[in-house]
Amino acid sequence: MTFTLTIDEPRWDASVRTAAEQFPTVVPVIKGNGYGFGRERLARMSTRLGVDTVAVGTEAEIASVREGFDGTIVVLAPLTQEELNRLHPTTGRVIRTVAQADVVHRLAEPNSPDLEVILELDSPVHRHGVQLAELAELAAPLSSVRLAGIAMHLPSTGDRAHAVKSVHTALYELRRARVEFDTLWVSHLNARELRELGEAEPRLTVRPRVGTGLWLADRSTFTVTGTVLDARPVPHREAVGYRQRRLHGGTLVVVTGGTAHGVGLQGSSARGGLKDVLKGALMGAAHGVGWTPSPFRWAGKRLHYADVVHMQVSMLIVPAGVNPPAVGERLNCDVRMTISTFDEVVVSPALPGQEFAPGATFPAAS
């Protein structure tokens, strides 16, 4: 019995293509767990889209993406001095990201590795990037580097006017420092913002890097399910699970899908005020003892955990008076795709020319 991702391939394919049409010169992002679909599958889909460039998160992800994509690969993680000394040869064109002034100076030296790079600038996200005040001193060394453009990683929400303004400010400072470039690589600008940027900068090639908005554009085109392994009635005040929590009666259901699959894991959040801290503490405590609703659904409602989430299964409680699922039935599961892994992926029906048949199942890829 398995924790399964089922993809309606023609509909998912169509949703990805529709999303890609909103972003001319799109650079699909293929990183981590491949947004739940697997990096190899997204690489093959990128080939079918006909794009010339994709982006990966780290150097280690290049090999798996290269299995399904022959074009240019951009590595989003910035190079460090240490990594410059131990880069392994790669197949095809690979562009690295540089986000520190000392790395730029190193690459400009005569005996430095011959790499093609993108210079990442600081943005309102402040994750990493060269400061605008450093551009004047970097103009000369950058002229000796194979520069494939400038990059900015912007906020995905919040004050959009401020985010867009930060791009125009950066472009102004780049020109004032006399840094020569013709391509801007950006993350988290929507279609309208990209169009307006293109109109304001007609001589600049803008390459939007898109992940979530591309692969997860229409979540109705795929489903995640766990298989019921056991279902048994439990009397009122019966103790169950590792924590021996006493239930109010109902049906105890064991379903595939646990922490190893990404079920029951909580995403981090930024520190807020006292109210947010107290709320987070209460939610964390409730989650730790299994009191929060699970992501599994039955009869149109979310079921509650009967115990803390196990590694490969979850124990749920179906309230008394509700007809429970039978062993072998599947429960829909609302998961965060970027942290989820699956025992199998079911593709039905397959598209013409693919290597798997309609309804085929196969292990989930990395």
From TrEMBL:
Q: What cofactor is needed?
A: pyridoxal 5'-phosphate
Q: Which residues form the Alanine racemase N-terminal domain?
A: 15-170
UniProtKB keywords: Isomerase, Pyridoxal phosphate
Instruction: Spell out the Pfam families in the cross-references.
Output: Ala_racemase_N
* Signal peptide region: none
Q: Which domain of life is it from?
A: Bacteria
What PANTHER family would the database entry show? ALANINE RACEMASE (PTHR30511), ALANINE RACEMASE, CATABOLIC-RELATED (PTHR30511:SF0)
Q: What is this protein called?
A: Alanine racemase N-terminal domain-containing protein
Species whose genome carries this gene: Kineosporia succinea
Lineage of this protein's species? Bacteria, Bacillati, Actinomycetota, Actinomycetes, Kineosporiales
